[in-house]
Amino acid sequence: MRVSLLSLLVSPGTGAPLRLVEKVRQGEEVIEGSLVYEETGQEIPIGGAVPYFSPEALRTNATARRFGFQWKRQAIGAFEKKTIYGESALEQLYDFAMNIVH
User: Fold this and answer.
1) Nearest-angstrom CA–CA distance, 50 and 42
2) Structure pTM?
């Protein structure tokens, strides 16, 4: 979540501002942390730079979070460059072709 957006987020019940609790930050982006409703102390988790106002979404969206993590890592070049899951492109093509035949 971009820190600059904090001023736009308020408690839906009272319109009171939310307090940001940072755990992991990269530049202007809070990757992990929470937003806190001051009047109740309730926390809104921030995971993968996304505030989850519905905590159920954080729990039920595990697959999307995992793929998002992998895509972000791939975008910065964190994965292998000359192989695909440890195989060359030719080996991958052969495996693909063999699976079509069967």
Assistant:
1) 17
2) 0.52
> Residue 95: which region, alpha, beta or left (left: phi > 0; alpha: psi -120 to 50)?
alpha
The pLDDT value recorded for residue 73 is: 73
Q: Please report, as a single letter, which amino acid is at residue 84.
A: I
The answer to whether 10 and 16 are in contact (CB under 8 A) is yes
Q: How many residues make up the chain in this entry?
A: 102
Cβ contacts of residue 16 below 8 Å, gap of 6+? 10, 37, 38, 39
Phi/psi of residue 82, each to 5°? -105, -5
Residue 70 C-beta-side C-alpha neighbours within 13 Å: 7
Q: What are 58-66's contacts with CB under 8 Å, separation 24+?
A: none
| pLDDT tens-digit map of 35-70 | 998 888 888 889 889 888 876 665 656 677 677 777
